[in-house]
Specification:
With 366 residues, this protein is of the alpha/beta class. Helix content is 25%, strand content 19%. Strand 1 and strand 2 form a beta hairpin.
Length: 366
């Protein structure tokens, strides 16, 4: 009978070790405390009572939806995962930056090339979209290349502070490897400074504000989403980005629901040679803050886009649809709307002015 207490103690130690590992580094990964970011919200016309808001009514997940979400998570199985290894294009772009090009590294992480400049957007090289090392959505494919293999950067853009777009280890590594400024929505700089990024390398912008990096103009533009790395929501701004050079323009959507702001942005800052728009993690439980593939096609047309490259899919299982469903729906919608699309493999570089002939690499995986 002495064996039972021994086994119980061993199980307790194992559980404590797992809990400690899961919580390791958690306080730092969470970022700045909400109180440290309230001043940013108070100086924005797009915030009320210290919280940022969408200009259109945007329902988020309610307590009543939680049991439904849990039920779907428990029954979805492996539907949101590829059936085999995702083909990657290793390495990184070399040589001079092109007029308009993009390298997609997976999810929303892209390297934009505009008129000879390079801008890295939403870099997420972490293994999990989570503050924990052991809990949370895990990558469905490796990163195609290391951060240390990227070419020299002119700027680093962040769309918002969710874990699948703002990753502490990635940020700290980039801060050491590059001297490029971090251009971010209002309030988000508090996270970066806490993680050791020098304050003079952080540029915070609200919707409608711009900054210059060389001969590029980076404009923070309205989108429809939310923010928060803790239980408190909307303590920092969320945004899309318009990147304009002397000759060419690109639009980076990051993560957003469909919004009338697309038409306004297209009218004032477009047309765009390239749009990068999210197509994954949509669900009827949060229709206002994530776009469907069909809405992405509509957004591309609202923006005056010429070539659409989808992002926010394939890398993390964050919804309830199957892995390749977003692409199938996107292709169908684009064909009906006469919209040009390029679907790169993770790590593949696309020249927006002369894209390669499309090869179907996704159908056999999902």
């Amino acid at each position: 009978m002495r064996l039972l207490p021994v086994l119980g103690g061993a199980v307790g130690l194992w559980a404590a070790a797992r809990l400690t590992r899961a919580a390791w580094g958690l306080p730092s990964a969470l970022g700045a405390a909400p109180a440290a970011m309230r001043a940013a919200a108070h100086r924005s016309p797009h915030a009320e009572a210290g919280r940022f808001r969408n200009t259109e009514p945007s329902a988020l997940v309610t307590p009543a939806s939680v049991p439904v979400i849990i039920g779907r998570l428990l029954t979805r199985g492996s539907a949101g995962r590829p059936s085999g290894p995702v083909p990657l294009v290793p390495g990184a772009p070399d040589g001079p930056a092109r007029a308009v090009a993009v390298t997609w590294f997976g999810h929303s992480s892209v390297l934009l090339e505009i008129d000879g400049r390079r801008v890295l957007a939403d870099p997420m090289w972490g293994e999990r979209a989570s503050p924990s090392r052991t809990i949370g959505p895990r990558r469905l494919h490796p990163t195609p290349t290391g951060l240390d293999r990227l070419p020299a950067l002119d700027a680093i853009l962040i769309s918002h502070d969710h874990y699948d777009h703002l990753d502490r280890p990635t940020v700290t590594r980039l801060a050491a490897l590059s001297d490029a400024p971090f251009v971010v929505p209002l309030g988000l700089g508090g996270h970066l400074v806490r993680w050791g990024v020098p304050a003079n390398r952080v540029v915070e912008l609200d919707w409608g504000n711009s900054t210059r990096v060389g001969d590029l103009t980076l404009t923070c533009v309205e989108c429809r989403h939310f923010s928060g790395r803790r239980t408190a929501r909307n303590t920092t701004q969320w945004s899309a980005w318009a990147v304009a050079g002397p000759t060419h323009r690109a639009y980076f959507g990051g993560d957003t629901g469909y919004t009338t702001a697309f038409s306004r942005t297209g009218a004032t800052l477009g047309p765009f040679d390239l749009t990068l728009l999210p197509i994954g993690a949509y669900a009827d439980l949060w229709p206002d803050v994530h776009m469907t593939p069909e809405e992405a096609v509509c957004a591309h047309r609202d923006l005056g886009g010429k070539l659409l490259v989808p992002v926010h899919w394939a890398t993390f299982d964050l919804g309830f649809h199957t892995w390749a469903e977003p692409v199938r729906r996107l292709l169908s919608a684009a064909a009906g709307a006469d919209v040009r699309i390029a679907l790169p493999r993770p790590g593949q570089r696309i020249d927006a002015l002369a894209p390669d002939q499309q090869v179907d690499w996704w159908s056999r995986l999902g």
